[in-house]
Structure formats: C-alpha cells, structure tokens
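Re: beginner question about structure tokens

> Can someone show what the tokenized structure looks like for a real chain? I only ever see the sequence side.

Sure, here's an example I had lying around. Input first:
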Amino acid sequence: MSQYVITGGQQGKARLKLLSEVMGPTTSQLFRQVGLSEGMKCLDVGCGGGFVASLMSDIVGPAGVVVGIDSDEEILMLARQDAELEGKNNIEFIKFDASAEHQQEHYDLVYARFVLTHLATPQQCLNSMRRSCKRGGHVVVEDIDFTGSFSYPPSIPYQRYTELYQQVVIKRGADPNIGPKLPGMFRMAGLENVQMNIVQPVHYEGEGKLMASITMQRIADAVISENLATETEVKEVIEGLDAAARDPNVLVSAPRVFQVWGRRE
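And the corresponding structure tokens:
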C-alpha cells in the first residue's frame, strides 16, 4: 500500500461522514442497479467509518451479512460503536489490508469506494476482490478522476487544491485519476459484463461545498512534508476554499466519479 495522504482517526471519520452524505444518493442508485438485495453477503473493502457498510446492511436486512475491512483500527473502533448504537447486528468490522486475500468465493457483492486510488498496487487489490466474490456475484468499485474537478467561476484556491492533491498522491505512489482505467482493470482481473456510470456531485450551497476545504486540511501534513507547498500557502488555500464555500455564486464540484461493476463467472 502507498503512504495514505489523508489523515484518519476521529477527524478523518467526520470527513468520511460528510463524503458519505454527498455520495449517498448515487451510491444507493448504484446498488439498486447492480441488484443488491435482502439476504446477500457483502464485503466492503477499505470501509473507513463504515458508512457504506451501514447502507448495505439496511438493504440486505437481518438475513444478510456485511463485513467491512480496513487497516485503520482507530476508525474501525468508531465504526463498531456506531453499528452497536444503531443496533445493526449484521455488520462486522475487521482490521485487514485491502490488498490481502480475504475469504475466497464467499460474497455476493464485493465493493470498494475511493480505495484503489490510494494503493500502489490497485490491480492486486481488484484481483483479490474478484477472488472473494462468489461465482455469479458482482465486484463494484467507485473511484475518482481528479482531473474532472472544477469550480465555477474558476477559483484560484480551488485550482491549487486540485493540483496539490494530485501531486501529493502521485508522490506517495498512488493514482488520483484512476477512474478511467477501471474498466480495463476489471477486464484484466477476469470480470465479465463490465459496465460503468459516471457521476459528479456539484454544490452551490450546503455542507457539500466544504469537502474541498476539509480534504485540503486532511492532506496538509502530507503536502508540507513532501515540500509541495509551505504551511503559509496551505493555510491560504484553505482560507480561499472556505471563502468559495460561503459564496452562493460559486459552484464547487467533487472529483468526477467512475462507478464500475462486473460479474464473476
């Protein structure tokens, strides 16, 4: 795995919660399109705070099972606490590396969102996901193409944020623009009937406009340690992003998101 650039823990979980709210409608639509239903067994790879696992658990119901795996034990503890408070007994969270082998041919649906983009060996992870999937089941991935990010009217701080994000992820050995590569990677993994959607949340008001600023705050340490920007410049970029978020005349997008799924025959 590459050196993950976005800091985790409690603050990282808060960011993931907001991200889940932003992506919730399109991810729910994707699950309906793929055919996620009651009684299924699901694996959420790189589950983070467990927000998608929670959504899956609502769909599969008491007869179904959702297993979330992540390498961040602190954020997994928080996810377990949430599941317990919500009385969701059909979710289990396990500390496990995303690219490592999990139970083979065990799950009806194997899913990852914004995980492959952070890995040095994303194909290895996708191959493992396929092996974890039952024959006739689906592997589903949502991941980003950061080059598709935009603000309107164009914002210099937002442009600088998108540059720094891509630069630091590449420097840490991962791929901030993996989205368009996913269909080919699915075919390379041996998945069949590969299909794709492209979605992109855009906001002119509300908390969704804060995602850029919050993400910049979470990558600040990595950006500074890699000498891509000074602490002063990072602070100025964050202030500029906050100003754009407050301005009702500025549209702010998330990165372009590729939703790709394929069947294991």
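Each token stands for a local structural state, so reading them left to right follows the chain. Strands lie at 41-45, 65-70, 91-95, 107-113, 133-145, 151-152, 192-199, 202-203, 251-253, 256-263.
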